[in-house]
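About this split. The held-out portion is used to measure sequence recovery: a designer receives only the structure tokens and must propose an amino acid at every position. Recovery is the fraction of positions where the proposal matches the reference. Here is one held-out target exactly as it appears in the evaluation file.
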């Protein structure tokens, strides 16, 4: 055990935050799935807890493995993976497993495991984008030589993710734009790109307003919404629910939001206590999309604020890592992956407190395990790989300084 701990390098604060979120995940998953497990498995209320323990164990192994790999290898690997992930996204779009009327998943043969290709695409894109940003710094202000080779990969990934998972596409696009801004891309280029990206969002809002007027405040079922495709109808419905809220009747998304509000109201400042959630019996997906509402119900606003604080500390440590890393690729890589995790967490929390339309985004490291949980652990492992290099570089720098000081002292003694 001591030998394993000695080999565990990287930012100790990030390691501590990972363990803290994992322990918090066990508590909330056990509480939020108790009733469901009792119904599904004839009284066995611990089944989902055991599954989460397995996922956390596998996740920690992934973090340890990827943090031991030299982070420069991810630069070389990203060139190959990026051009493999694009066909994979296209395949998922047309032939993927359909859940919630969207092709988000792909099923692996033999092991019969499904995973979201968008999670893999995010990870690969940010590795590739970090590589390109580090190589294009001298021509970053030039549109053709600098900006275009960076924005095209972002556009491709977002376009192929969006039809099945618009919220993830928007998060990937926003994180990429933020990374390009930090990477000194032209503000003019970013501004015009942002305007183009806002066009479909504005169209969705206008469609939601029109649909609300046509329906007189009553949200019809997705399949009956004129001749809109199922996914577009779902997006419009979610925007409409966010804008008009309780004015809508018979709407599933509005039901989720209202149940989350009830959970938050019951929690108050200090919460009902661990395992005492009442809304877990009414709130859809209390163990994934709406787990933050359960956290507030059981641990109060104080507990919700603490979770927010944990993610902010994680971001702060990653920004420090960005500033300390001597090489551009490692700095951009750590920042990109931390941004995407923290922005995802903020989005999930915003949805739960009704500051953002309903999405299928989970709370990283806290929501019940799945492919998203494992890809999150992989991203954290890569961040810690960069941190391990920075730690090693600083240690070598201190040793060189100490050697120089010793040599200087020896020369002074000899001179005396």
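Reference sequence for scoring:
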């Amino acid at each position: 055990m001591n030998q394993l701990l000695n080999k565990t390098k990287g930012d100790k604060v990030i390691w501590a935050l990972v363990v803290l979120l994992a322990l918090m995940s066990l508590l909330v998953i056990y509480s939020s799935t108790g009733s469901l497990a009792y119904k599904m498995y004839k009284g066995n209320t611990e089944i989902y807890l055991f599954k989460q323990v397995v996922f956390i164990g596998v996740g920690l192994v992934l973090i340890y493995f990827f943090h031991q790999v030299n982070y420069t290898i991810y630069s070389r690997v990203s060139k190959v993976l990026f051009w493999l992930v694009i066909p994979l996204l296209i395949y998922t779009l047309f032939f993927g497993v359909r859940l919630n009327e969207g092709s988000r998943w792909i099923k692996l043969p033999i092991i019969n495991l499904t995973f979201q290709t968008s999670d893999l695409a995010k990870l690969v894109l940010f590795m590739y984008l970090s590589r390109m940003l580090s190589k294009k710094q001298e021509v970053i202000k030039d549109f053709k030589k600098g900006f275009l080779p960076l924005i095209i990969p972002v556009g491709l990934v977002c376009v192929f993710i969006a039809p099945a998972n618009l919220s993830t596409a928007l998060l990937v696009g926003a994180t990429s734009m933020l990374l390009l801004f930090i990477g000194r891309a032209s503000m003019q280029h970013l501004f015009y790109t942002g305007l183009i990206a806002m066009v479909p969002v504005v169209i969705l809002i206008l469609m939601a307003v029109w649909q609300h007027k046509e329906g007189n405040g009553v949200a019809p079922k997705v399949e009956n919404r004129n001749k809109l495709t199922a996914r577009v109808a779902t997006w419009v419905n979610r925007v409409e629910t966010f804008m008009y809220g309780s004015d809508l009747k018979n709407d599933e998304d509005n039901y989720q939001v209202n149940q989350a509000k009830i959970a938050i109201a019951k929690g108050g400042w200090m919460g009902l206590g661990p395992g005492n959630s009442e809304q877990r019996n009414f709130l859809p997906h209390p163990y994934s999309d709406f787990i933050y509402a359960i956290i507030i119900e059981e641990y109060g606003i104080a507990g919700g604020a603490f979770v927010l604080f944990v993610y902010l500390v994680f971001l702060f440590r990653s920004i420090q890592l960005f500033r300390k890393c001597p090489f551009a690729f490692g700095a951009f890589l750590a920042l990109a992956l931390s941004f995407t995790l923290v922005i995802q967490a903020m989005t999930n929390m915003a949805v739960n407190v009704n500051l953002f339309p309903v999405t299928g985004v989970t709370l990283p490291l806290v929501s019940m395990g799945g492919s998203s949980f494992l890809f999150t652990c992989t991203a954290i492992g890569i961040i810690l790989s960069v941190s391990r290099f920075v730690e090693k570089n600083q240690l070598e720098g201190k040793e060189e300084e100490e050697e120089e000081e010793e040599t200087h002292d020896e020369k002074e003694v000899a001179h005396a």
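Annotator remark: Strands lie at 97-99, 102-108, 113-116.
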